[in-house]
Amino acid sequence: MSGLDPQAYLADVLDRIHDHMSNRLDELLPWNWKPAVQPHSEAA
C-alpha cells in the first residue's frame, strides 16, 4: 500500500530497530520510512 518493497522494508527495520532511539520510532513506520543506505548509481 505504501509502494515499498516489503522484504527490503522489513530487513532494514529489523536491522536498525535495536539501536534506534525510542522517541523516533515513528521514522520506521512504512509511510515515514526511508532506507538507511541509498543505492549507488554506477557511472558509465
What does this structure look like?
There is one protein chain. The chain has 44 residues and is an all-alpha fold. It has one domain (1-34). 25% of the residues lie in helices and 0% in strands. The chain contains 1 helix and no strands. The longest helix has 11 residues, at 6-16. The termini are far apart. 0% of the residues are buried. The model has no long low-confidence stretch (mean pLDDT 82).
- Low-pLDDT stretches are none
How many structural domains can be distinguished in the coordinates?
1
The termini sit apart by 34 Å
Which sheet architecture does the biggest sheet show? none
Give the count of helical stretches: 1
Q: How many DSSP-defined strands?
A: 0
Task: Supply the helix-strand structural class.
Answer: mainly alpha
Mean pLDDT across all residues, rounded? 82
Name the helix and strand elements from N-terminus to C-terminus, one letter apiece. H
Rg of Cα set: 12 Å
What is the overall shape? globular
Task: Please give the share of residues in helix.
Answer: 25-40%
Features:
mainly alpha; 25% helix
Compact summary:
The chain has 44 residues and is mainly alpha-helical. It has one helix and no strands.
Write the topology of this structure.
Elements: H1 6-16
